[in-house]
Amino acid sequence: MKKFLTLVCLALIFFGLLCLLWQISQPLDILNRISLYNIVFPGRERLPFGENPQTSYNFSIGSLDAAFASHKINKTGTNSPDTLRIITIGDSSSWGTLLRPEETLCGRLNGKLLPDGRSILCYNLAYPTLSLTKDYLLLNRAINYEPDLILWPLTLESFPIDKQTDNALIRANWEEYCRLFPEKNTDHKEDMAIENSVWGQRREAADWLRLQLYGLMWAGTGIDQDYPESYTAPQVNLAADNTYHGTEGPLQEEDLAWDILEEGINRAGNVPVMLINEPMLISNGENSKIRYNYYYPREAYDSWHQELISRAEKNDWLFVDLWNYLDIQDFTNSAIHYNADSAVRLTDVVFAEIERCLYQ
Amino acid sequence: MKLQDIFFLALLLFSLRLIPIRRIRHYLVLICSAICVFKFQPVLPIRGLDFSLPIWTILLTICVYGAFSKQNPLKSKTNLIDAAILLGSILLISATRFTEYDNILTASRPPQLSFIVPHLLTGAVFAFILNISAQKENKWQMRICIFLIIAVLIILKTPQLTLIFSRAARSLNGQSTDLALNTDIRWFGFSYIAFRLLSILIDSVKGRKTNIGLGEFFVYVCFPPALSAGPIDRWDRFTKEYSSDAKGDISDDLYSGFGQIALGLFHKFILADALSKMALSSQNAGLFIHKGWAWAALFAYALQIYFDFSGYSEIAIGLGMLFGIHLPKNFDHPYLKPDLTKFWSSWHITLTQWIRSYVFNPLTRSLRGNKNHPLPQWLIILITQLTTMLFIGLWHGVTINFVIWGIWHGFGLFVHQLYSRKTGPWLRSMSTGFRKIYTVCSVFLTIIYVVLGWVWFVVPEFTDAFSFFGRLF
User: Fold this and answer.
1) CB 3.0-4.6 Å disulfide test: which of A162, A167, A204, A236 passes with A285?
2) CATH number of the domain that A31 lies in?
3) Count of A–B CB contacts within 8 Å?
4) Does the CB of A217 have a partner CB in chain B at under 8 Å?
5) Does residue A37 lie in a domain region?
6) Would residue A16 count as lying in a domain?
């Protein structure tokens, strides 16, 4: 019995020391920056996101450090004069739901040759969540990779105030959000000992490990999302509802996070930011006179759209308006997710715009 | 077994060991074993089936006991008490239906008594008839039991047959037959239970004395730690140790038992579960576009299945030690063996030994015994190895991929035996240094052969498996 009790005591002491060491050193901050991607496995083409890891070999990881460490952008060296480095941010539409990495806007831009002989090197840093604040967080990190141009595809659904912080990515990176938006931080949490303990950080640590493990399947198959054989097409027959996030009729300035958009463009500094008003499904079905699609009543969207155009003109922003560029059949499983062929057409327009703004 | 089940079992088995009075301990073990049969059974979509199958595990064990036991159970007080405890446990478990915690011991809410009683009566009648015949020194009843157990095993392992039975059971229950799946009928632990029952039946048919009590026999068949994934202990060794009062040093067992459990948990829940995220599967076999990573996924699978299986075995051995039962070792570094014969002597050792005792040895003896038309030695080796490995393959499932997997290993063993016969003297004359190099190369070749064999094991469709081989080379 003595032998057994000694073993139990030793195990407890070892565990206690491990907990103490963890609490003091907070290894997750370092661990999240270490990745097998770009060393053992090729870097990911898109930020990790997925709801069905068994089939997508990918999942939504909270830590932006770990997500960026797994991305191929983390391997890039200094800017080469032979390339034009472009970073795309944005939502699921630019991340490429149901599209393979090479089929997205960014994927299609990759390798395109510019008249001056440079080729485009595009990094997809979009993340499938509709929120300008989330876009800002990504842009803030993207700047560190010294891009020549940032493409910021956006849509009205990213603008409402209530969409800004109510998402998993912001909650998981709350400290970073508070640092970037100290004036918006009304409920700053004090660090609690339990949150910094092994127990409190066990999920984050397990997620980091899972991300590394899925690297083999990513490397072997090139698959990073679930591609179902069939999916439900977006609604064309719509409800007779003119309200948008509780507001009826045209939207007011205070309903939307215009300030985040402006701060994002300012944060980019000398790096040009090209705003792209994402194409969306324009329904011709029931109640299509009231609504464009599942997301937007016509009045609300039109008021936002007009405001976006006028702000772009007033501030001299690079702006590509593609809101009505695609037809109903070009959309896949949502009013903002387009198919691979449409991505080719969009890329041509965006590429032409890039050339125009570079050589005008 | 889930993590909480393992911790609960560890606590329970150790507490049972501490009970000083042997009879009381035995009765409690009997009750716990019966409860575990129900507790571990997964939920099934066919109404009442997840309660029926555990009942039949118990009844089948009693029937088999009746078939080989030459005692009249009505004259044996201990057997009567044991039978009463087992049947009482079923009723006790079914009575949870009337409590707030109606699925605390079962996968779903226990069915009504009117559903259970016919099962019990049928089982009792069968056991009685079989036992009357056994007392008259007949053997046909044991042969019937062997046939029935093998038939059930074949049904459970053949997807087409389980589908037919699922449809039939659904139809009897008034459930939609359109929703029937071959996974509807999953009898927890039956592969292992069947082999334990078969071993004693075959031994009895051969005339071996099987003088054990019903309770001991039931605990041997349904010993909770070994219920889900073995090891398949020998009945004589197990019952001897179980019945013995001297169960070894409690401190040593506690120390080694927890060590084994910790190792098993690490192997199963950390290594195997982590490897499963990167391992080859039937789902991803067709998706690989890079040769190197396809190999990596295949090796990940090889390690995953090893750690998964050996992890469960270590947990079972550790749990057994806490109770004072020393279950046999099931894995002994199989991937480090220099040839296929040694690999199979160290992979799922208890299953291999079972097959050797009840399939390989009798078959070899019968092939060699034909003095009028003697078969050439190489043909005997080929037939015995192929039959044995085919049997192991079919034990995993009656599907074409397991047949090929069995043949793959049977053929490998045949080639190795012929090779070792030819090269034996030459190998013995090797210098030590050269022999070391030779052994390293042999280990490497054996691993590659075994790992390639796993493709057949993991990919059920022949064409998919073949196409995966194409991706590897």
Assistant:
1) A236
2) 3.40.50.1110
3) 54
4) yes
5) yes
6) no
**What pLDDT digit, counting tens, does each position of B88-128 carry?**
999 999 988 888 887 888 888 888 888 888 888 888 888 88
Is residue B42 within 8 A of residue B107, CB to CB? The reply is yes
- Which residues of A are less than 8 Å from B277 in CB distance? 53, 210, 213-214, 216-217
To the nearest whole angstrom, how far is the Cα of B231 from the nearest Cα of chain A?
25
What are B469's two structure tokens?
Answer: 């081989």
Angle of CA points B145, B148, B151, to nearest 5°:
150
Residue A3 falls within a domain, yes or no? no
A9 in any annotated domain: no
Question: Three-class SS of residue B45?
Answer: coil
The domain total for chain A is 1
Contact B278 A210 (CB under 8 A): no
User: Domain ranges in chain B?
Assistant: 3-245, 247-326, 332-473
Query: Which of B252, B255, B299 to mutate: most A Cβ within 10 Å?
Result: B255
Which domain covers residue A259, as residue numbers? 27-185+194-359
CA–CA gap between residue A82 and residue B162 (Å, rounded):
64
pLDDT, tens only, A41-69: 999 999 999 988 988 999 999 999 999 99
Structure tokens at A116: 């001056």
Predicted ipTM of the assembly: 0.85
Q: B256, B293, B301, B471: best mutation site toward chain A, by most A Cβ within 10 Å?
A: B293
State pLDDT tens for residues B323-376.
Answer: 999 999 999 999 999 999 999 999 999 999 999 999 999 999 988 887 777 888
